[in-house]
Each structure stands twice: as C-alpha cells, then as structure tokens.
C-alpha cells in the first residue's frame, strides 16, 4: 500500500515541478515574485475546460489551444505590466503588488464569467493500469509522460543551447548581460513564453484529473514555490528535486496521518530549510556584497 502512495506522490511532485519551473524562470531572470502565475494557471485551466467540455474539441487539441493562449497571456503580463514598471524604476515590492493585482483581476473575471462552482473536464470513467498491486489512472499516465518529456527536453536545451546560456547569463547578472550585447527584451519575451508553457501544461494535466475552480491557483502555486525553495532557488533544474521531494512527503503524510496535515508538514519543511539550509537541496550560497 505504501508504494501506491509513493507513486501518487511522485506524480503529484512532477506536476509541482512543472509549475515551479514556470515560476522559477521568471524569478531567476527578473527577481520578480511572479504571483500572477496563480491567475495564469487558472486561466489555462478554464481555457482547457472551455475548448474540451463546451466546444467538444479532443483533449489534446483543447490542451494545445490552452497552452498557446496561456503563453500569450504570460507574455502580455511581462510586456504590459512588469517591463513598464521596471522602466519607471519601480521597486520589486511594487511590481509584486502589481502581480498580485493581475492575479486578482484574472481570477475574479473568471469567477464572474464561469461561476465559482467546481467543474470537471472528463465525466466518463477512464481506464486504469495495474502493475501488480499498483494502480495508475489514465490522467496519471498522461501526467507522468508529458511532464517527464517536457522537463527532460527543457533541461537539455538549457544546458546545450544558446537559449539556455542566455537564461543563465541573465539570471547571473542583468547589467553584464546587456553590456555584452545580448538582447534583454527578446530574451525576457522567450522566458515568459516558456514560463507560460510550463504553467499551462501543469494546469491542463492537473485539472484533467481533479477538476477546476477559480480559487485553485494560489494553493498550487504555494506548493510550487516551496518546491523551488527546497530544491534550490538559484537553479531551475533543482525545482524537479524539490517538487518530487515535496510530493512524496505530502503523500506519505496522508498515508501516516491524514490529509489535514499536508499543509502543516509542507510549511514545517519550508521553515526547516529556510533556517538550516536556505540555499536548498541542490542550490548554492549566494555571494553577498
């Protein structure tokens, strides 16, 4: 029985990893606490639901439509809010408040248009797969395959391509990045588009399994941020370690105690890392000037 909980935790953790990477891409390159990611996550879920449940598109087609539109919304958040505020030399605190405002607007507009009740994408009974005593549902299989594929491809691109080098350079030193002649505006556009890709895929894969409501985004984002911090905030790949660790820990908490203890254990783990190892599992200590 415990192995079933571990498998469930791994699949939940890989979903946390997707959202954590989407958040970390923005945070590492701009130092903006991208709270609007919660609203973008909800937007992706409802676009997916609308195209699938209302318009009758196949699940894959609905997911692609959601991903494309969500990437556009992520790009708009940067070009219409973050960058204009940065040009005015607004502090990161002001930009974070603007990000919270954007999240609030998105969530409330969705609630006004679609209501606050929980909705489901798939009403039918889906196939399950048995591996001995372990049971994997069809949504879980999709979650594992698509998440592992995207994360693997992204980490390879991050390590071996010019795009990955530019992201690392921008994360390291914004001023030096521009001094060396790189196009910061273009790079940030790609960063936000990629962030939207990860956020939307995490959203579509999650709501296909458990349903959706307008207020789900913030709770999931908090778990993703915890995953980023315990994995190592300075390294995007460490989000995977943090996400898997958090997913397994939460699942074992349900196994040993009850689901009510998940949030308490999550924040206890976060506090432990902040006090004892603030750089995270795979992170590194920042040089202080």
Features:
289 residues; mainly alpha; 75% helix
Topology:
Blueprint: H1 2-30, H2 36-54, H3 59-87, H4 92-114, E1 128-131, E2 134-137, H5 138-160, H6 162-172, H7 174-179, H8 184-210, H9 217-231, H10 238-256, H11 262-276
Antiparallel strand pairs: 1-2
Helix pairs in contact: 1-5, 1-6, 1-8, 1-9, 1-10, 2-3, 2-4, 2-8, 2-9, 3-4, 3-8, 5-6, 5-8, 9-10, 9-11, 10-11
Word description of this protein:
There is one protein chain. By secondary structure, this protein is mostly helical. The chain has helices spanning 2-30, 36-54, 59-87, 92-114, 138-160, 162-172, 174-179, 184-210, 217-231, 238-256, 262-276; strands at 128-131, 134-137. A two-stranded antiparallel ribbon has the order 1-2. It is globular, with a radius of gyration of 19 Å.
Task: Supply the helix-strand structural class.
Answer: mainly alpha
Strand neighbour order, sheet with most strands: 1-2
Q: Could you tell me how far the N terminus lies from the C terminus, measured between alpha carbons in angstroms?
A: 51 Å
Q: Tell me, rounded to a whole number, the average pLDDT.
A: 90
> SSE order in H/E notation?
HHHHEEHHHHHHH
Q: Write down the Rg.
A: 19 Å
Q: Sheet with the most strands?
A: 2 strands, antiparallel
pLDDT below 50 for ≥5 consecutive residues: which ranges?
Answer: none
According to DSSP, the number of beta strands is 2
How many helices? The count is 11
Task: Assign a percent range to the helix content.
Answer: over 70%
């Amino acid at each position: 029985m415990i192995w079933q909980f571990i498998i469930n935790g791994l699949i939940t953790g890989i979903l946390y990893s997707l959202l954590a990477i989407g958040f970390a891409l923005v945070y590492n390159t701009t130092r903006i606490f991208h709270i609007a990611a919660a609203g973008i996550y909800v937007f992706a879920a409802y676009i997916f639901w609308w195209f699938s449940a209302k318009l009758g598109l196949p699940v894959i087609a609905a997911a692609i439509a959601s991903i494309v539109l969500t990437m556009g919304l992520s790009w708009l958040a940067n070009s219409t809010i973050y960058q204009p505020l940065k040009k005015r030399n607004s502090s990161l605190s002001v930009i974070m408040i603007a990000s919270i405002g954007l999240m609030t607007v998105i969530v409330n507009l969705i609630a006004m248009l679609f209501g606050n009740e929980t909705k489901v994408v798939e009403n039918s009974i889906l196939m399950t797969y048995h591996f001995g005593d372990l049971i994997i549902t069809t949504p879980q299989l999709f979650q594992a395959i698509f998440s592992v594929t995207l994360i693997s491809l992204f980490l390879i691109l991050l390590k071996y391509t010019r795009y990955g080098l530019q992201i690392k350079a921008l994360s390291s030193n914004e001023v030096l990045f521009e001094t060396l002649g790189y196009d910061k505006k273009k790079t940030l556009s790609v960063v936000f588009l990629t962030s939207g890709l990860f956020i939307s895929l995490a959203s579509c894969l999650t709501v296909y399994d458990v349903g959706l409501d307008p207020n789900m985004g913030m709770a999931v984002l908090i778990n993703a941020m915890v995953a980023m911090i315990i994995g190592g905030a300075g390294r995007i790949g460490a989000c995977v370690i943090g996400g898997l660790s958090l997913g397994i820990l939460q699942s074992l908490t349900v196994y040993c105690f009850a689901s009510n203890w998940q949030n308490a254990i999550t924040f206890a783990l976060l506090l432990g890392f902040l006090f004892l190892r603030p750089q995270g599992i795979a992170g590194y200590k920042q040089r202080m000037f």
